[in-house]
Design a protein that fits this description.
alpha/beta; Rossmann fold; 4-stranded mixed beta sheet; 42% helix; 20% strand
């Protein structure tokens, strides 16, 4: 009955949102796709245009910005642009597939502003101590970098009240299950069932 939905997942580095996102896609039975971003960075070996990214020149990207073709976009480290093309998302939704977007809090707020029907989920750790231990456990960053990550985490967590849902990633399976429940429930909201209700009202008895 319900239509497809745009789902935005955010959360601090180390909270496990990449793992949760991959599992949601893997368990969707093909009914959900990951959002493909546009970027001005150079294509890397093995990447395919339209699959990994939509590769654009700066002129093409600027033209898309001027036409309002992004749900959100940003410049990373003052170099390359990245953005979520509205057209791709809308095409996927219209084809009956839900779209999953893993993005930072500022991008999520832009998506929500430009596409209010989006469902936003903030994935949070059970505690900052747990988050710190996970970051240390990755063994990929210095102590100074981890402290920066934790400071960034506090900033990101301050946006939590602006999200539709909060999911604590203490137990991975529980967190995945809660996210799936949120998505299933969102698809049953009146805004996503208008065609079905219309068919009921117009049904000949």
């Amino acid at each position: 009955m319900g239509k497809s939905v745009l789902v935005v997942i955010s959360g601090p580095s180390g909270v496990g949102k990449g793992t949760v996102a991959r599992e949601l896609l893997a368990r969707s039975n093909g009914n959900m796709v990951f959002s493909v971003s546009a970027t001005t960075r150079a294509m890397r070996n093995g990447e395919i245009d339209g699959v990994h990214y939509f590769f654009k020149t700066e002129e093409e990207f600027d033209d898309m910005v001027s036409k309002g073709e992004f749900l959100e976009y940003m410049r990373v480290f003052g170099r390359n642009y990245y953005g979520t093309p509205r057209g791709f998302v809308v095409d996927m939704l219209n084809s009956g597939k839900s779209v999953l977007l893993d993005i930072d809090v500022k991008g999520a707020m832009e998506v929500k502003k430009n596409y209010p029907e989006a469902i936003t989920i903030m994935l949070v750790p059970p505690s900052l101590k747990t988050l710190k231990s996970r970051l240390i456990g990755r063994g990929t960053e210095s102590a100074e970098a981890i402290e920066r990550r934790l400071a960034e985490a506090k900033t990101e967590l301050s946006y939590a009240p602006k999200y539709d849902f909060i999911v604590v990633n203490d137990d991975l399976e529980v967190a995945i299950g809660q996210c799936r429940q949120i998505i299933d429930s969102a698809m049953l909201a009146p805004a996503h069932c208008d065609e079905f209700i219309s068919s009921l009202l117009n049904e000949e008895l």
